[in-house]
Design a protein that fits this description.
alpha/beta; globular; YqeG family HAD IIIA-type phosphatase; HAD-SF_hydro_IIIA
Length: 174
């Protein structure tokens, strides 16, 4: 039942992503979450390290779009200065926002990865569409909103079940 919450890859942060390995999989585009994936949920702007990472992705030919459940004001204030397209109020794991991201990227599902910090939104949404899913640890869990905390409770239940089935090991995260 919880197998759809399993990501293809687990990392500590986006900075641990092997960009060349991702490209070798045929991935050309990245749908990324914003809050607690790229920056903390209360961090309004990209850090210099994040800007450098995004520049590396662009230099390797990756297209990027932010898909966030947060509102337009939050997402636009972050994304506009970086020139990154975005889909706010995404209602992940709903397919609609992911499909809009494909239109923006001009790519197919098999050419796209999704990066996020939540199994219930980012990973489930990506897996439902056959994307390469990458789960990162949340940057600032203490800043999470109520709905994210509810999702985290469900994730803990799912993780217990996945561990019992031998499908989740803590040492897998890099």
């Amino acid at each position: 039942m919880f197998e759809r919450l399993l990501p293809n890859l687990r990392l500590n942060s986006v900075y641990d992503l092997d960009i060349e390995a991702l490209a070798s999989r045929g991935i050309k585009g990245i749908i990324t979450d914003l809050d607690n994936t790229l920056v903390g949920a209360k961090e309004p702007h990209a850090t210099p390290r994040l800007i450098e990472w995004l520049d590396r992705l662009h230099k390797h030919g990756f297209k990027i779009v932010i898909v966030s459940n947060n509102n337009n004001v939050r997402v636009s204030r972050f994304a506009d200065p970086l020139g990154i397209p975005y889909v706010p109020l995404a209602r992940k794991p709903s397919n609609k926002a992911f499909r809009k991201a494909f239109e923006i990227l001009g790519l197919r599902e098999d050419q796209t990865a999704v990066i996020g910090d939540q199994m219930m939104t980012d990973v489930l949404g990506g897996n439902r569409l056959g994307l390469y899913t990458i789960l990162v640890l949340p940057i600032a869990p203490k800043d999470e909103g109520v709905m994210t905390r509810v999702n985290r409770m469900i994730e803990r239940i799912a993780l217990r079940s996945l561990r019992k089935k031998g499908l989740w090991y803590e040492e897998e995260a890099k």
